[in-house]
Amino acid sequence: METSGQIPVIDISGPDSEAETAKQLIDAAATHGFVYIKNQGKDIPVEAIENMFNLSKAFFTSPIEEKEPCKITENIGDFKEAMNFGEFVDGKAQQPLSPALVDHEAELDQFHKYCHDMMLKILTLFAIGLKIDQEAGGSEWFSSRHQGGPSGCTLRLLHYPSIPPESDYQPDVDIRAGAHSDYGSITLLFQRPGQPGLEIIPPETRTKERNFGPTAAWTPVPVIPPGTENDPSPPILVNIGDLLSHWTKNYFKSTVHRVVFPKDGKRGGEDRYSIAYFGHPVGSTVLVPIPSEIVKSLDGGNANGVKAMTADEHLMNRLKATYLGMYRDGEDEKVAAA
Ligand SMILES: O=C(O)CCC(=O)C(=O)O
Ligand SMILES: [Fe+2]
């Protein structure tokens, strides 16, 4: 295992035993809430990732009239555009596809599946690492709850435009994506060489006051951490979402992150493209206590007599908290996961 700054780089398809890899993964989830998964094309083919970024660029550089009908989510104040794809049904997107994407539905569906499979592999390792009772489901305990029904799983293409040099943006104030944590189980994040900007607040420095402002301990997360320079594609960043943090009684950390303009280099920065996959359990999954001695021994979690909520209820609560004011009943599909 290599470490970068703090966030470890783990090869989940490498020579280490499953038990050893699982231990490394849960330690990273518990300490940092973020982990790099070394990417040698064994889990997701490198060409499939390249192809997705090419499609993303073709989509975002297409004329606004073509993009607009496809519901691009916008966060007021953020310099970004995003395109979300919910789950495909029988290979079909459940939303209109713009001309740049319409002939690529099968590739988008396939990429959704690659990400889902990689999520299941990581969740299996988490269950092994947490030593979940064999009679209760063992290594399948999480993964079985992420298959077989509709869920909030979302694939998101992101584009952060560079700012023209003559514009009046303020590099210290303006932001590409504001401070937030993700909502679901785990997120996979794909980044491009030469397009940095992600920053985290390491969980150990996160204050009780929940200071997510400019004075918080923002720490850059490099696209290519040491030891991965010669890999065919940058490592895939995996981070824990609020649901899995809640489910593990905060053993796994849901780490606050944001995306900033590069501090050096061209004023206004280069364009940044990223791709995120937000993994969620099947919506009807009840978030019952995890049958793991490691988790049981922690304080907190479901109080006796309190009905455990479902994954859907958890997501709705998080959406309501985020979009307070903006949120209107029945509009949850439009915002999906953050
Ligand atoms: O673009 C990135 O690197 C991060 C995006 C992100 O955090 C999100 O969409 O939740
Ligand atoms: Fe995020």
From TrEMBL:
Gene3D superfamilies for this protein? B-lactam Antibiotic, Isopenicillin N Synthase, Chain
Q: What is this protein called?
A: Fe2OG dioxygenase domain-containing protein
The GO biological-process annotations, alphabetized, read as: small molecule biosynthetic process
InterPro entries, sorted: DIOX_N (IPR026992), IPNS-like_FE2OG_OXY (IPR044861), IPNS-like_sf (IPR027443), Iron_ascorbate_oxido_reductase (IPR050231), Oxoglu/Fe-dep_dioxygenase_dom (IPR005123)
Family recorded in the similarity comment:
Belongs to the iron/ascorbate-dependent oxidoreductase family.
Question: What are this entry's molecular-function GO terms?
Answer: metal ion binding; oxidoreductase activity
Which of UniProt's keywords are assigned here? Answer: Iron, Metal-binding, Oxidoreductase
Pfam families, per database record = 2OG-FeII_Oxy, DIOX_N
The Fe2OG dioxygenase domain covers: 149-281
* Top-level lineage group: Eukaryota
**Classification via PANTHER family:** 2-OXOGLUTARATE (2OG) AND FE(II)-DEPENDENT OXYGENASE SUPERFAMILY PROTEIN-RELATED
